[in-house]
Write a structure and sequence with these properties.
The chain has about 160 residues and is of the alpha+beta class. Helices cover about 25% and strands about 20% of the residues. It starts with a strand and ends with a strand.
């Protein structure tokens, strides 16, 4: 068992669990887009980012794939975390302005119109389809391109 601080409360959890798993077990909601119970967590969407204080410095980590350890301090709902998530949502809204899930996240976080150039895509590049395709052995699709040119395509 590991003991650490989660949103100001001392919690215990099994070694090997992620911050997201422990947060969910303690009724703390952390939004995710790329996380699915059938796949290993990848931290691709970064919407689950939380603040981690490791005893020396504070930094952002992805809750879906970051393992818990004794002595760490995690904050899931600070101004910095909210600002970080808002920026990610704004980028997603620019890419996928008609995606219902992304629009709902935008409403929850008060993100209205992104200041970035709008695209008309429904893919949020979360990687779920790519990882599931790889898991079943098909490898029929993968990420192609870099940066703003990234897309899911056939190899």
């Amino acid at each position: 068992m590991v003991t650490f601080t989660l949103d100001g409360r001392e919690v215990q959890a099994e070694e090997g669990l992620t911050i997201l798993q422990v947060a969910e077990a303690n009724n703390i909601h952390i939004p995710t887009l790329c996380n699915h119970k059938a796949l290993e967590p990848a931290g691709l969407c970064r919407i689950c980012s939380v603040e981690l204080f490791d005893g020396r410095r504070t930094r952002f980590v992805t809750a879906c794939n970051y393992p818990v350890w004794t002595g760490m301090e995690v904050k899931t709902d600070t101004e910095e975390v909210t600002r970080h998530r808002k920026m990610i949502i704004e980028l997603l809204l620019a890419r996928c302005p008609n995606n219902d899930f992304v629009k709902k996240l935008g409403e929850q976080y008060g993100v209205e119109a992104p200041r970035f150039q709008l695209e008309d895509d429904d893919c949020i590049l979360c990687g779920l389809c790519v990882r599931m395709c790889e898991r079943i052995g098909a490898r029929a699709i993968d990420f192609s391109g870099r940066g703003t040119e990234m897309e899911v395509a056939t190899p």
